[in-house]
Amino acid sequence: MNETQKYITDIYPLSYIIRYSNVPRIKDESVAEHSFYVAAIVQKLFDEYKFKLGIALNMAISHDIIEVYVNDIPHLIKKRYPDLAKMLKDIEKKEASGFPKSVGYGIKGLHSNSTESKIVHMADAMQCEQYALNEISLGNSGYMESVVEHSIKRVDQIRQEIVIYKRENAL
Asked: Is residue 112 situated within a structural domain?
């Protein structure tokens, strides 16, 4: 098996890693699905903001790829244990070295304060809201309502930070 085949095989389990695994869900969403939606949202945000699309898309695809090794640690746990969240970021940086260089660049870029990084973080929050709203529409309330509230706050905060990059012809 060559390096490309190994990489393709290694990332496939992202389709089996379920997000929000510690709360009741009606429709599961895998990390692979989430990453696709984040990238698709980044594409749409390009209509509204000025940023380097290729760099942002690389960050979007790379942003959770390390979860193939560390799994999807629920947000509630990261929030309760900030030291764990920091440790996971350190693990992410170390594990990135075993992936293609472009993944390492994407992960490193996510930890920068660049416009592209902010765009990806905003797309990530928008996708969390997308998933939570779908869950609510299916009848799942409770925690998903707090996901929507938190996501809206994150998006609003980032929008304020990147307002200077708004395209003139954007609605």
From this structure: yes
